[in-house]
Amino acid sequence: MRALFAWLVPAADVVGAPLTLLAGLWMKLVRRSGVQRLPVSRRTAFHPRHLRQPLDRPRNLPGVDLDPAGQLALLESFRGEAELLEFPLRPPAPHEFGYLNRSFGPGDAEYLYLAIRHFRPRRIIEIGSGNSTLMARNAICRNQAEVPDYVCEHTCIEPYEMPWLESVGVHVIRRRVEDLDLAIFCELQANDVLFIDSSHVVRPQGDVLREYLEILPALRAGVLIHVHDIYTPRDYPERRLLAEVRFWNEQYLLEALLSGNRGFRVFGALNFLRHDHWDRSGWPRRERRRSRRHGGWPCCGVIAPARSAGARLATSVS
After folding, report:
1. How many angstroms separate the CA atoms of 294 and 46, rounded?
2. Rounded CA gap, 124 and 170, in Å?
3. Is 5 helix (H, G, I), strand (E, B) or coil?
4. How many angstroms separate the CA atoms of 149 and 210, rounded?
5. What is the 3-state secondary structure (H, E, C) of 40-67?
6. Is-above-0.90 flag for pTM?
7. CA quadruple 245, 249, 252, 258: dihedral positive or negative?
8. What three-state secondary structure class fits 79?
9. 301 and 96 in contact (C-beta within 8 Å)?
10. N or C: which end of the chain has fewer CB within 10 A?
11. pLDDT, tens digit, for every residue of 157-178?
12. How does pLDDT run across 114-143, given as a tens digit for each residue?
C-alpha cells in the first residue's frame, strides 16, 4: 500500500499541476485587487475555529514589563491637551490632518502630538508616512512657535506612496528601508523619534527584520521608538484577521524583543492604556467621546537600548 501511495503522489502532482498554477494566478489576482472586494474568497482564508480563544482577551506575557505607573506618570506630565481640540474631525483640505481618517486616528495621533510637544526631538525619522506625518508637522510647528530657534529635521522613508510628501516640508527618501545605510539611524540622539509603520510582516530579508534585528540594536540610548499597529497585550483584532485578512506578525516579534529585556522600556502601550486605565488616562477629551465606537489606540512607544545607557521604547496601537 505504501509503495502504491508513493507512486501515486508524484503522478497526482503532474496531473494537478495545472490546477496549482491556476490557483496561484487566482491568489495573485486576489492580492492585487484587494481581498475586501472578494467576500467569498475572503472566507476561505481563515476561520474562527482556528483560534484557541477570542482575540480580544489580554494574553499572559510574563516577560514584558508594561510599566503602567511609568506610562501614567508620563501622560500626566504632557501639556497641550487643549491644543488637540483645535484639530477638526475631518480633514479641511488635502494634506491637512483630521481625526477621522483610516490610518492614524484619535488616540494615536494625539499621543504622537503630545509626545513631540513634550520631548521636542531634533530629528524624526518615519518608516512609512501619511497622517502621522501631518500630525507630527503640526507638533513641530507648535514647538517652533514657542521656541523660535527650535529646529527638527523630519525625514520620511517612503519608497512607493504619498506623492504629496515633498510638499509638506519633510525630507523624503524614496528607497526601501532594507536598502538604506544604518548610519542614517545612528544619528538619532536621546529624545529623537523613530516612527515605524511598515509592512508589519516578518519575511526573509524584509523590512521588519531589518528594523528589529539591525536598526533597533544600533540606536543610541534614549531614542523614542514609536511602533504603529501594536495591540499588546491583546492579539491583533478580529477585524484585521478575519475581515481584512491581514496576517500581521510584527507585534509578536516586538513582544519577544521586550521579554526579559531591560534594554528597552515601554512608555506608551496605548491599547493597554485604553482598556486597563481608561479613567486614569486623562487625555484626550475628544478621543474619550469617540474611542468606544471607533476602537483603536494601536501603538506602542519604547525607549531605545539601555546597553547604550538608558533607552526607551514607545509603542502605539491604532
Report:
1. 24
2. 10
3. helix
4. 35
5. HHHHCCCCHHHCCCCCCCCCCCCCCCCC
6. no
7. negative
8. coil
9. no
10. N
11. 999 889 999 999 999 999 999 9
12. 999 999 999 999 999 999 999 999 999 999
